[in-house]
Write the structure tokens for this entry.
Amino acid sequence: MEFKDRLKNLRNERKIDQKTLAHVLNYGATAISNYESGRNEPSMSDLKKIAEFFDVSMDYLFCVNDIRNPYSKRDYPENFENLKTLYSALDEHNRELADDFIHWLYDRQSTATYSSNLKVAQSKTPYKTKKQQ
């Protein structure tokens, strides 16, 4: 296997077309096609961008081994990769909307957790003092 095959496999795993990947990486429309056909090879800085986007090591990209990323431990679900791909394909305005929505969800979750912790204190059960007992 060669770099061009590895790139195509990674792109197909993410279910994105060449045009979308080129857009996400800020490349020209034919750059990915040229890489995958073997007509062109990316520069070192472009290889780093590709490796970072797909979250793989340079060794994996160069087909030195089949270990995608030997140095990272993932603490997020596998479908997070799909979310990263979708987020990367958004334009700046929609990324801001997505960020706002994620913060809203987080705040909502935090508020719900805080509110549920307060329910004991907000209970309508009357408290009895020692004199009332």
Observations:
- Residues 73-114 form one domain.
- The chain has a mean pLDDT of 80.
